[in-house]
Specification:
The complex is a heterodimer of chains A (113) and B (115). With 113 residues, chain A is mainly beta. Chain A is built from no helices and eleven strands. In chain B, strands 2, 4, 5, 9, 10 and 11 form a six-stranded mixed beta sheet that branches. The chains are: A mainly beta (113), B mainly beta (115).
């Protein structure tokens, strides 16, 4: 299995608080991704990174920011959490070649009350 | 734009063969993946197609027809553990010199395998 660790695995917090989720990889892969998964919506890309300090928006980026200061770490921040951001968040990584799959972490279940 | 269509649910019997279809409309084609996801777990990667034809990987096979914008995942000798959601995903267009490795995802097909 690809070495991907997401932390925390579960979090409950209140509306308006900042939240940071961490994705750590030991594979030295160039590409990293943050998704959210909600019933009826499948996997939706929030942000992705194609290198250290290189990031771009996905389809549902509003309310989220990311940072990648090291190859191995990709952070997702909710500046002021809202109940609509309650979801399961997955981090994924992939190698540079276009035919390589994305490998997923175990997910973070985030509840915002 | 890019879009993928898959049935929302499929039901089959243990020991049987089941086919899960995926049709896509994309501007260009750069490869199609099938992922399996068990409830409460991360998606995992069963197969990849970039050329027309059938790719076999144990009990799982995946077929692609680029001219028809169509793929299917074939699961043989179904087992109860195959009950999961299955997603098709296509590679988004890569612009010249671009860094895009994004995938466009279908909404998933929930497969229920009954005894």
């Amino acid at each position: 299995d690809a070495g991907i660790t997401q932390s925390p695995r579960h979090k409950v917090t209140e509306t308006g608080t900042p939240v940071t989720l961490r994705c750590h990889q030991t594979e030295n892969h160039r590409y990293m991704y943050w998704y959210r998964q909600d019933p009826g919506h499948g996997l939706r890309l929030i942000h992705y990174s194609y290198g250290v300090k290189d990031t771009d928006k996905g389809e549902v980026s509003d309310g989220y920011s990311v940072s990648r200061s090291k190859t191995e770490d990709f952070l997702l921040t909710l500046e002021s959490a809202t109940s609509s951001q309650t979801s399961v968040y997955f981090c994924a990584i992939s190698e540079s070649a276009a035919n390589q799959p994305q490998h997923f972490g175990d997910g973070t279940r985030l509840s915002i009350l | 734009g890019q879009s993928l269509e898959q049935p929302s649910e499929v039901t089959a019997v243990e020991g049987a063969i089941v086919q899960i279809n995926c049709t896509y409309q994309t501007s260009g084609f750069y490869g199609l993946f099938w992922y399996q996801q068990h409830a409460g777990e991360a998606p995992t990667f069963p197969s990849y197609n970039v050329l027309d034809g059938l790719e076999e990987k144990g009990r799982f096979s995946s077929f692609l027809s680029r001219s028809k914008g169509y793929s299917y995942l074939l699961l043989k000798e179904l087992q109860m553990k195959d009950s999961a959601s299955y997603f098709c995903a296509v590679r988004a267009p890569v612009l010249k010199g671009g860094n895009n490795r994004k995938l466009i995802w279908g909404l998933g097909t929930s497969l229920a395998v009954n005894p």
